[in-house]
Design brief:
seven-stranded mixed β-sheet; 17 strands; elongated; binds manganese (II) ion
């Protein structure tokens, strides 16, 4: 053996000794060695510090299991007996059993100090073996786990508090918005009365009233947007995903933003979308998203700029709608802040009205509909907002042969015409029901597109039966049902709910609200027609009873 080799080995040994020494005198770990029966043989400085015993008090006297919470040791013995399908005694065996079978073992138990105080510990246990592999004892290395445990508890508490605060914030915003709307309706209502007063207001008064109205409508938009955002953030927004015609959506968007484009001198190019192209979306909400993107692309465009809307198929089953403008574009810093509520990226100084909520809302809405919203922008050239949505099957075409025809025309003279009011925002569903009712000359169909006008139409025409969608613009079908049932004029009319929300909870909620029946979309022709007949019969009965009681 060379001298060099000897020196290296010596160095290693010294190093190994130093290492061993460092471990044994470590104040941060409790290191306990026992004999094969579990009686303590070595108790290092760290163990003394952590557990409050002097080595001499425990060596050859007790076992590490005596310093643990006895109930936890019993529980561990039971758990291990089950896990390993063999009886394990609640004592040192419960700590050492796995290590004695050569299994790696770390456990978390509570150590009890000499003074009775407790702390959570994480302990790693290994069997010590002689040269013939016989077990001569065990080595237990323990660390105080209270810091980690405290941090865990603190984290869980902090998360619970944050969650609660977030819900409280959403509740506050939603309650506040309702409270603000009531006085605002008075302001807007009376300002409009003044504007149309006789004799007409003076030019100065007209200017003042116009300012009140302008600010009032803006405030109303803001309140509605905050309310919407609060509803989304609290997870209470109800959407119905059903086949929605993109061509219809853009047709409606086009008429809604036409005057805006004209005022600004912006040219706009709408896509030609096939009538058969349907997406899985909530009609009202997807329209809200595109109206928002389109009105941004007009508002933040250059004078005489242009907007183009394009569509492509980025992946099977997906469609991408891109709204491209020729505006000033956004810098990377602005893009980073784009989806922060109330952040208007400096536009607040440029006189453009807005709240900074629209884009945040749009992104969340698209995501709730299973889609994505992306933005690509180059400073000086413009921005492109792309919405990817899931394609949906075109709604079934009605098999007219399946529909029971109404009474023949000659006998219709004898029966009174009955009327059905359908409140529905999605034109595809409305068309389907129009087709169905066309086969029933005894039924006249009325329709409205939102909850409030549905209630107004019901009061004006007193239809025999009402068919009500649940997710509607403005008030929901459930709220509309409540208004109808509170009014003695309409309380007797059977209202059938027809909604894409097919969760059992939705149906229960609907029936609790007082609906006659709750049908789910897509419409099943047989079920639909028989429910309608049932409701018409109930309506006729109701009428007869009402007449008899006169
Ligand atoms: Mn709807």
């Amino acid at each position: 053996m060379s001298t060099l080799e000897t020196t290296r080995r010596e160095t290693l040994l010294i190093k190994a000794g130093a290492l061993q020494n460092a471990i044994l005198t470590s104040a941060n770990f409790s290191i306990i060695a026992t004999d094969e029966k579990g009686v303590i043989q070595l108790f290092n400085v760290g163990a003394e510090g952590m557990l409050g015993y002097q080595a001499a008090e425990v060596i050859n006297k007790i076992s590490p299991s005596d310093m643990h919470d006895p109930l936890e040791v019993v529980a561990r013995a039971e758990a291990l007996s089950l896990e390993l399908a063999t009886p394990i005694a609640p004592g040192f065996e419960a700590l050492a059993f796995k290590a004695s079978r050569g299994m790696a073992d770390n456990y978390e138990l509570t150590y009890i100090r000499k003074d009775g105080s407790r702390f959570p510990a994480i302990v790693s246990i290994t069997a010590l073996r002689d040269e013939d592999k016989g077990i001569i004892g065990y080595l237990l290395i323990g660390a105080d786990n209270s810091l980690r445990k405290n941090a865990e508890v603190a984290l869980i508490n902090a998360m619970a508090i944050a969650e609660k605060a977030n819900l409280a914030k959403s509740d506050f915003l939603s309650g506040m918005s309702h409270e603000l709307r009531t006085p605002l309706s008075a302001i807007l209502g009376f300002a409009q009365l003044m504007a149309s007063d006789k004799p007409a207001p003076s030019p100065a008064q007209t200017r003042s009233v116009d300012q009140i109205l302008k600010a009032g409508w803006y405030l109303l938009d803001l309140i509605n947007e905050i309310l919407d955002l609060a509803t989304i953030e609290s997870g209470r927004l109800s959407l119905s995903l059903e086949p929605t015609s993109l061509a219809e959506v853009f047709h409606e968007c086009q008429s809604m933003i036409e005057s805006q484009t004209r005022q600004r001198g912006i040219s706009i190019q709408f896509p030609v979308i096939e009538a058969s192209c349907f997406v899985g979306a909530d009609h009202t909400r997807v329209k809200q998203v595109f109206i928002n993107l389109l009105s941004n692309s007009i508002k933040y465009n250059k004078p005489n700029g242009s907007v183009s809307i394009e569509h492509s198929l980025p992946a099977p089953g997906r469609i991408r709608i891109s709204v491209r403008d020729t505006g000033y574009g956004l810098s990377p810093e602005q893009l980073d802040q784009l989806f922060q509520p109330f952040n208007r990226l400096g536009q607040e100084n440029k006189g453009e009205e807005g709240t900074g909520i629209g884009l945040v809302m749009s992104k969340r809405l698209v995501e709730l509909m299973g889609g994505t919203l992306h933005v690509h922008s180059i400073v000086g050239e413009g921005s492109t907002f792309s919405v990817d949505l899931n394609l949906a099957e075109q709604p079934q075409l009605v098999d007219l042969a399946m529909i029971k025809a109404g009474p023949p025309l000659e006998s219709q003279l004898g029966i009174s015409m009955r009327s059905l009011l359908y409140v529905e925002d999605n034109p595809a569903n409305l068309m389907l029901v129009e087709d169905l009712i066309a086969r029933r000359p005894d039924i006249r169909l009325l329709s409205t597109r939102d909850g409030l006008s549905g209630v107004a139409c019901a009061k004006a025409h007193l239809p025999d039966v009402i068919l009500m969608d649940i997710n509607l613009p403005g008030i929901s079908g459930i709220q509309a049902m409540k208004l109808l049932s509170e009014d003695p004029l309409t309380a007797h009319i059977p209202v059938i709910a027809l909604s894409a929300n097919a969760m059992r909870r939705d149906i229960e909620k609907g029936l609790e609200a007082g609906f006659f029946r709750y049908l789910t979309k897509p419409i099943k022709v047989d079920e639909f027609m028989s429910t309608l007949d049932l409701a018409l019969a109930a309506a006729a009965m109701g009428k007869r009873t009402a007449q008899e009681s006169l």
